[in-house]
Write a structure and sequence with these properties.
The chain is of the alpha/beta class and 209 residues long. The protein is 26% helix and 21% strand. It has helices at 43-50, 113-117, 135-145, 164-171, 187-208, and strands at 29-36, 59-61, 80-82, 86-91, 96-102, 122-127, 149-154, 179-182. Keywords: ATP-binding, GTP-binding, Hydrolase, Nucleotide-binding.
Length: 209
């Protein structure tokens, strides 16, 4: 087999993951988090920007066969779509690790969501204020599965800005569900969004105790 990898010796023997990709020996707990949203809201971008390991992506080129079937919003600039999932990892502390799973946005791949939601402690729902309507099915599926979530408004340059209370009303959200602004391209912004989710999950756990 011809291994095309920087982690391969000239003899063709795989040497394993890069040193920076190895799970820290101090890690004592791992949490599964899902990044969800409609097509083109920035899920793959967020996983890629915040992951401390090389993210796994399953993007495929959008073709003529998808016309009339797939969401083609922004297709003049977006040429690929996630067909299975994105995967990344971030260490919150020496002991706690988050495993990140980005869901496919195209509706014909939504049957994969149930498997990705399985075992998830919580979720980030990425939204684009130009297309709030695509978020309703996403939130509904999370509620059906009992997966707590926060809302992250991805900061697209040409997207309209709305007050938090107006967004909460439009999305019919409980007052306790956090709504934050983020830039999925920026590691710090994506990290802060994940930390908001973790604080929210902690508050829910305390309320149940």
């Amino acid at each position: 087999m011809d291994f095309k990898s920087s982690d391969t010796l000239t003899s063709g023997t795989v040497t394993g993951p890069r040193e920076q990709d190895v799970l820290p020996a101090t890690a004592a707990a791992a949490v599964k988090i899902v990044i969800v949203g409609g097509f083109g809201v920035g899920k793959t971008t967020m996983v890629g920007s915040v992951s401390e390991i090389r993210p796994l992506t399953t993007e495929e080129t959008m073709t003529q066969a998808g016309i009339g079937v797939d969401d083609d919003y922004g297709s003049e600039t977006k040429t690929a779509t996630t067909v299975a999932m994105d995967f990344g990892r971030i260490s919150v502390s020496d002991e706690l690790v988050l495993y990140l799973f980005g869901t496919p946005g195209q509706e014909r791949f939504w049957f994969l969501w149930n498997g990705l939601f399985e075992g998830a402690l919580g979720a980030v729902v990425l939204i684009d204020t130009r297309r709030l309507e695509v978020s309703f099915d996403v939130m509904g599926r999370l509620e059906e599965r009992g997966v707590p979530f926060i809302i992250a408004v991805n900061d697209f340059p040409d997207a309209p800005r709305h007050p938090v209370h107006a967004l909460r009303t439009a999305l019919d959200l409980d007052e306790r569900v956090p709504i934050v602004s983020c830039d999925a391209r920026q590691r710090v912004s994506s990290r802060d969004t994940l930390m908001t989710l973790m604080r929210y999950l902690h508050s829910l756990a305390l309320a149940r105790a």
